[in-house]
From TrEMBL:
Keywords: Cell membrane, Membrane, Transmembrane, Transmembrane helix, Transport
Assigned protein family: Belongs to the binding-protein-dependent transport system permease family. CysTW subfamily.
Keyword flag Membrane: yes
Matching PROSITE patterns: ABC_TM1 (PS50928)
Biological process, per Gene Ontology: transmembrane transport
Entry protein name: ABC transporter permease protein
Domain (ABC transmembrane type-1) ranges: 79-293
Annotated transmembrane regions: 29-55, 76-105, 158-178, 212-234, 241-262, 274-294
Keyword set includes S-adenosyl-L-methionine: no
Gene source species: Aquitalea magnusonii
InterPro entries reported for this sequence: MetI-like (IPR000515), MetI-like_sf (IPR035906)
PANTHER family on file: INNER MEMBRANE ABC TRANSPORTER PERMEASE PROTEIN YDCU-RELATED, INNER MEMBRANE ABC TRANSPORTER PERMEASE PROTEIN YDCU-RELATED-RELATED
GO cellular component: plasma membrane
Localisation: Cell membrane
Amino acid sequence: MPTSPDSVTHCPPETGPARQRLAPSALNWLGVVPFFLFALLFLILPTATLMIGAFQDANGHFTLGNIAKLFDDSILSAYWISFEVSAASALGGSLIGLLLALAAIQGGLPAWIRPTLMTFSGVASNFAGIPLSFAFLSTLGRMGLVTVLLRNYADFDLYSTGFSILSFIGLTLTYLYFQIPLMVLIVTPAIDGLRAEWREACESLGGSSVAYWWHIALPILWPSILGSTLLLFANAFGAVATAYALTGSSLNIVPILLYAQIRGDVLHDQNLGYALALGMIVVTGLSNAGYIWLRSRAERGRE
């Protein structure tokens, strides 16, 4: 039997919020325009410029000479020292930061410890450059506060042991100031993801605390821990202001060598500086890619 036109139910067209969700207006994109503009001006265009400049000579002609110079002994030595400083500060920062986060979250400490630690970590992880260098020179320099106190009240000359704030150890200690808080901020969500029933199940089956951490907690946390260590490595490898303000040219690391090639009067070779920066981008890019992959794996493991 045919259906009359009056009996057909017509769905009203989508209007209001539902229609806006399906077809967002151009005005909704205005909120992200500053982000895209910032990324274009301060990330994409500078990166493209140095990538092109790394394969050009002073006259703008194509050359592989800048890339070949990266394998000179002095430049390889600078990369190796940067690698050592970054690895030492990343491993030390990840270990100490992990222990601090575990103590604040699952250590049974007073409730005010965690918010205080997180607040300090948020501030200290962004404290770098000239202020941080001045703070460490004023604390551990030859006439620094701690150095003078040890000499006057403990009869211990810190610099007689061979220590120097301008050395590999001094720069690593300075980097740890912002590496440790950064690790606390990164690894805290992963520790929060450990469910209480997992420990209860382990204990109900007769497992000890060591067995819980070895067989349950650490296998779940290790992608986050390793990924955070890679992120700390990239963070230290690309730091230039702190190292330059603290050590000047006394420590031959890549960021200082790069600065000397681009801004220096003696070693000025802008295109070689671009090639050095390209090498740093490759190293930090691989580290960040490893962090992203491990973070996604950690998130799948907690589902």
